[in-house]
Design a protein that fits this description.
Layout lengths: L1 H14 L3 E8 L4 E4 L2 E4 L3 H6 L4 H4 L1 E10 L6 H14 L5 E5 L5 H11 E2 L5 E4 L12 H12 L7 E5 L2 E4 L3 E3 L8 E3 L6 E4 L2 E4 L10 E2 L7 E5 L8 H8 L2 E6 L13 H10 L3 E6 L12 H7 L5 E2 L5 H14 L3 H8 L10
Parallel strand pairs: 1-4, 1-5, 5-7, 7-8, 15-16, 16-17, 17-18
Antiparallel strand pairs: 2-3, 6-14, 8-9, 9-12, 10-11, 12-13
Bound molecules: aspartic acid (ASP).
């Protein structure tokens, strides 16, 4: 009896093979040595031949929509990726995006805002070493990404890298060489993958309908403070940018001395209708501008937004998404503090 059941399960699982769309965008995973260094060059079909097993795991289709070192990725590229998924959303059960690692955290965060509440998983992966090298993380990452994309309990936008599943707004590249290139910043892994098994730590199944967005405003600037920086720079930034993110010190300190007059100049920006967000340049644990006078002084102006524990990648792409929808302060504020794909918790 048990044997029969086993056979039946196999038959069923065969009949219900998940349909997965692999979307290639370039990156080291598809790179070969050219005369000037590594460059994305391996055709997608050839790349997939390195991992023949995945074709048995699911019903797989693959498209190459660009072939970039992700250094050259732009917001328009994020819209192209989101648009591809939108177009083919009904046809597939999950999506795996092959992407360079250098700006993958921006793309994953941007997709978290462009594709919201997706019950179907969208997975980003890549590699630190090209797939055709003897020692490479590429095969493992592709296989595990497809495995996760096929999982019934997977949803929303995620990284799958080095056996770890990270929410799309929480990842950051923290190593330039090693295979454990990404960290989940101030947030647990959603799942890990061990010996071809997905172990879920967070049950994040989503129901309801996916929401797609197709507008971004690129006029977002990040100003990393250094001791001695004059605040006058804000006047120049206010001429062109719609949002300025100020990466201050520690838990939340922005200078305001005779020489570094940030308080009046931030007020000028806010009066002009520029969105100003305060965050910290400390990598972990986020900001709380209420702790010190050098923070609270700025928080007195309620128009100043604070990013708390959001990653910089999430702050920047969330602002681009929000400003693509509205320039109205109350709406910007409401959307900025709305939690999306685990980007912010208080
Ligand atoms: N420069 C490469 C890229 O981001 C690095 C990588 O993929 O690991 O496209």
């Amino acid at each position: 009896m048990e044997n029969h059941l086993h056979g039946l399960r196999e038959l069923n699982s065969h009949a219900e093979k998940k349909r997965i769309l692999v979307i290639a965008t370039g990156g080291t995973i598809a790179s070969r040595s050219g005369s000037d260094g590594l460059v994305p060059d391996i055709p997608l079909e050839q790349l997939l031949n390195y991992v023949p097993g995945i074709r048995g795991q699911c019903s797989l289709e693959a498209v190459q929509i660009m072939n970039l070192d992700s250094t050259n990725m732009q917001p328009s590229g994020w819209l192209t990726i989101a648009g591809t998924i939108r177009q083919r959303y009904e046809e597939f059960d999950g999506f795996v995006i092959l992407h360079g690692t250098d700006t993958m955290a921006y793309t994953a965060a941007a997709l978290s805002y462009l594709i919201q509440n997706s019950p179907k998983p969208v997975v980003l992966t890549g590699a630190q070493k090209p797939i055709d090298q003897d020692i490479s993380d590429a095969k493992g990452n592709v296989i595990q990404s497809v495995l996760y994309a096929c999982d019934d309990r997977a949803s929303d936008v995620n990284f799958v890298f080095n056996g770890e599943v990270i929410a799309g707004t929480r990842g950051r590249k923290v190593r330039t060489k090693s295979f454990n290139a990404f960290s989940s910043v101030d947030f647990p892994h959603k799942a890990v993958i061990r010996e071809n098994q997905v172990i879920h730590y967070i049950d994040s199944r989503l129901s309801g309908r996916v929401r797609f967005y197709d507008r971004l405003d690129e006029k977002v600037f990040v100003l990393r403070l250094i001791p001695g920086l004059r605040a006058d720079i804000l006047r120049y930034l206010g001429e062109y940018f719609h949002a300025v993110v100020i990466e201050g010190f520690g838990i939340g300190g922005i200078p305001n001395t005779e020489e570094m007059r940030f308080l009046p100049l931030i007020r000028e920006l806010l009066d002009k209708g520029v969105t100003v967000v305060a965050t910290t340049q400390v990598p972990l644990e986020g900001s709380d501008l209420d702790v010190y006078e050098v923070g609270r002084l700025f928080k007195r102006d309620e128009r100043l937004l604070e990013a708390y524990n959001m990653t910089l990648e999430a702050i920047v792409t969330k602002l681009m998404w929000i400003l693509g929808q509205t320039r109205e302060h109350a709406q910007i504020r409401e959307l900025f503090y709305r939690q999306i794909n685990y980007d912010l918790y208080q």
